[in-house]
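hey
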C-alpha cells in the first residue's frame, strides 16, 4: 500500500476521497473507530426514516380521504407526490452537498422530515396536507441521493455490505410503518392525525448522529476507509475488488477533509451520454412506480377484497419486511456476480406472479401475494447497488445517483396517479393490475441492460471521441 508521503505527492486525480484530510488533521485510531460507528448509526437511522412518511399514509389512506374529502383521483395524485418530490428535490442534492457538505444536507433532510410529519396531519385542507408532505419528502429526496455517495466515500471497501445494511434498515422502517400505524393510531386515541404524527419522533432522533459531522466538517474517520481500500486492492479480485477501488476520483472541490464531499469538476462524466446510465434510470423509475403503487394502494386492494383494515396493514408490512433480509443479501450477491441482470429478471418474475394472484384470488392467497410482491420490491436495493457499481469514481457515483434517481422518479410519477384514475372509473382492480403487470415487462428488460458489466466513464468517453 502506498505511503502517506506518496499519497501527498500523487496527483489529486488519483486520490481516493477518504484519503483526503483537512490541513494538519491527524485522527487517533480510537477516534476514527468512534466516528465510524457514529456514521454507521447515522446511516441506519436515516434509512429507517426514508419511507414511513409514505407507508404510514398508505395504511390510513381511507381515513385520510374521508377526513379531507378526497376522491379516488385526488388520492391517486397524492400517491404520486413522493416520486415528484424525489425527482425535483433529488436533483438539487449534489449542488447542496458541494456547498454545505453531504452530512449537513442529510441532517437538514431529517429535520425537514420531522417538521413535515408534525405539520401535515393538522393542515386542515388537502392543499396543506400535500404541502407539508412535500416538505418531508424533500428531506427524503436529498437523503436518497446522498446515501450512496456517503456509503461509497466512508466505506469504499464495503459498498455491497453497507448498501445492504442501509437497504435493510430502509425496508425495516418501511414495514414497521405499515404494520404499526393502524394499531398505534388506535392506541393514541383513534384519530388518523395522531397516528401519522407519531413518526416525526423517529425523524427527530435521526438528526442527532449527523450533528458532529456538521460541526467538524466530517474530518474524523477519514483514514479508516482508506486503509480498507489499500487492503482490498492488494488482495482482492473480480467484482469485489472493483467495488473496493472505484472510490478513486478526479480533482474535487470539497468541504476540507470530509469523506463524501461531492466533486465539482468541469471534466465530470456526462451521464446522459451513457446507455447504461439511461438503462439504470429507467429501471429505477419502473421499480419506483411498482413500489409506490404498492405502498399507496396495496392495503386498499386487500380491503376491497374483504380483508380487515388491520390485516391489510399487516399484509403491507409483510411485503415491506421481505426487504429486510433480502436487502442485505442482494447487494452482497450483486457485487460478486459479473452480470446482475439475472437478479433483475428473477425479481420481475416474482412481481408478475403476485399481480396475477391479486387479480385471481386477492383474499384467498393474500399472504402468498404479499410475500412475492415483497421479493419483487427488492429491485430497489439492487438499483442502489448498481449505482455504486456502474461508476469508477466517487464523482461518477454522485452524478449517476442524482441522474438515475431524479430521472427515475420523474418516470414513476404517472403510475400511482393512473392506478387511482383507473380504479375510480372502472370500479375494480382488473385494469390497474393489468397496468402494473404491463410495466413490469420493460422493467425486466432494462434491468438486464443495467446489470451488464459497464462503466459510465468508459461509455461517455467513447461517445465523446
Amino acid at each position: 500500500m502506498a505511503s502517506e508521503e506518496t499519497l501527498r505527492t500523487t496527483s489529486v486525480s488519483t486520490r481516493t476521497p477518504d484519503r483526503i484530510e483537512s490541513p494538519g488533521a491527524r485522527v487517533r485510531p480510537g477516534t476514527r473507530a468512534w466516528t465510524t460507528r457514529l456514521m454507521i448509526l447515522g446511516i441506519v437511522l436515516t434509512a429507517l426514516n426514508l419511507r414511513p412518511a409514505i407507508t404510514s399514509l398508505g395504511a390510513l389512506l381511507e381515513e385520510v380521504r374521508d377526513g379531507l374529502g378526497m376522491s379516488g383521483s385526488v388520492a391517486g395524485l397524492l400517491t404520486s407526490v413522493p416520486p415528484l418530490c424525489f425527482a425535483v428535490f433529488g436533483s438539487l442534492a449534489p449542488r447542496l452537498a458541494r456547498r454545505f457538505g453531504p452530512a449537513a444536507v442529510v441532517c437538514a433532510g431529517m429535520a425537514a422530515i420531522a417538521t413535515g410529519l408534525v405539520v401535515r396531519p393538522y393542515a386542515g385542507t388537502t392543499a396543506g396536507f400535500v404541502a407539508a408532505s412535500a416538505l418531508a419528502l424533500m428531506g427524503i429526496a436529498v437523503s436518497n441521493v446522498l446515501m450512496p455517495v456517503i456509503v461509497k466515500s466512508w466505506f469504499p471497501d464495503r459498498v455491497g455490505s453497507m448498501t445492504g445494511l442501509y437497504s435493510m434498515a430502509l425496508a425495516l422502517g418501511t414495514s414497521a410503518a405499515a404494520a404499526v400505524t393502524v394499531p398505534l393510531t388506535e392506541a393514541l386515541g383513534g384519530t388518523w392525525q395522531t397516528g401519522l404524527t407519531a413518526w416525526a419522533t423517529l425523524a427527530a432522533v435521526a438528526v442527532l448522529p449527523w450533528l458532529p459531522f456538521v460541526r467538524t466538517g466530517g474530518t474524523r474517520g477519514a483514514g479508516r476507509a482508506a486503509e480498507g481500500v489499500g487492503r482490498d486492492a492488494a488482495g482482492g479480485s473480480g467484482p469485489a475488488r472493483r467495488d473496493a477501488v472505484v472510490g478513486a476520483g478526479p480533482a474535487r472541490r470539497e468541504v476540507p477533509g470530509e469523506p463524501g464531499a461531492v466533486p465539482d469538476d468541469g471534466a465530470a462524466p456526462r451521464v446522459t451520454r451513457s446507455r447504461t446510465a439511461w438503462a439504470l434510470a429507467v429501471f429505477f423509475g419502473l421499480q419506483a412506480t411498482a413500489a409506490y403503487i404498492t405502498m399507496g394502494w396495496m392495503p386498499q386492494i386487500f380491503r376491497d377484497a374483504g380483508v380487515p383494515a388491520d390485516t391489510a396493514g399487516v399484509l403491507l408490512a409483510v411485503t415491506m419486511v421481505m426487504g429486510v433480509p433480502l436487502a442485505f443479501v442482494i447487494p452482497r450477491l450483486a457485487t460478486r456476480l459479473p452480470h446482475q441482470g439475472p437478479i433483475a429478471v428473477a425479481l420481475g418474475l416474482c412481481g408478475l406472479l403476485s399481480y396475477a394472484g391479486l387479480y385471481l384470488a386477492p383474499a384467498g392467497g393474500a399472504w402468498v401475494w404479499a410475500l412475492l410482491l415483497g421479493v419483487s420490491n427488492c429491485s430497489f436495493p439492487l438499483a442502489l447497488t448498481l449505482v455504486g457499481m456502474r461508476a469508477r469514481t466517487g464523482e461518477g457515483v454522485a452524478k449517476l445517483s442524482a441522474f438515475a434517481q431524479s430521472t427515475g422518479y420523474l418516470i414513476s410519477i404517472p403510475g400511482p396517479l393512473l392506478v387511482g384514475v383507473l380504479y375510480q372509473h372502472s370500479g375494480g382492480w382488473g385494469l390497474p393490475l393489468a397496468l402494473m403487470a404491463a410495466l413490469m415487462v420493460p422493467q425486466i428488460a432494462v434491468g438486464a441492460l443495467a446489470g451488464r458489466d459497464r462503466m459510465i466513464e468508459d461509455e461517455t468517453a467513447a461517445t465523446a471521441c
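The radius of gyration is 22 Å. Confidence is low (pLDDT under 50) at residues 1-27, 217-267.
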